[in-house]
Design a protein that fits this description.
With 153 residues, the protein is an all-alpha fold. The longest helix has 34 residues. The radius of gyration is 18 Å and the shape is globular. It starts with a helix and ends with a helix.
């Protein structure tokens, strides 16, 4: 039993934990209003002469890059879980694992943005769902590309 749980937790817990982290990032504590209190002063420390509008633009891009990164990692965690559960070699691309992982990421992006509509300082955004999905799709393409490269090795 312990061996089965160890195997399960090693591959299936990471995507579930990462989904909890994403949910935490979707709370009011990580709204643009809150994170700007950290990001703004940090940017001003490195670039004291920069205009406020420029700081706001940089903050916007940092936050949107976060969407891409969060969901790229989520895809990798789900793909690894499906892949290792099937005991497939990591060099080998499994399309069904990619499709399942991408579907989970997109579904979670939609529910995450819907959740944000219920918070006081956040707004659910179709643009953010698109960015989240693009991050997951980019990770899928990267893993697929790596599998092609590895086949040639």
């Amino acid at each position: 039993m312990s061996s089965q749980f160890s195997h399960w937790s090693r591959f299936w817990l990471p995507p579930l934990i990462w989904m909890l982290v994403i949910s935490l990032f979707s709370t009011d504590h990580f709204s643009g209003q809150q994170t700007s209190r950290f990001i703004g002063p940090l940017l001003r420390f490195f670039m004291p002469e920069v205009a406020e509008a420029t700081i706001s633009t940089i903050q916007f891009f940092i936050r949107k890059t976060g969407h891409l990164t969060e969901y790229a990692l989520l895809f990798v965690f789900w793909y690894r879980a499906f892949h290792r559960h099937a005991e497939a070699p990591l060099k080998e691309w499994k399309r069904t694992h990619g499709v399942y992982s991408l579907a989970i990421c997109i579904a979670y992006a939609v529910t995450d943005e819907w959740h944000q509509t219920w918070t006081s300082h956040r707004v659910g955004s179709p643009l953010d769902v698109t960015l989240d999905s693009a991050g997951a799709a980019a990770a899928m393409l990267w893993i697929r590309w790596r599998s092609v490269i590895r086949k040639d090795e």
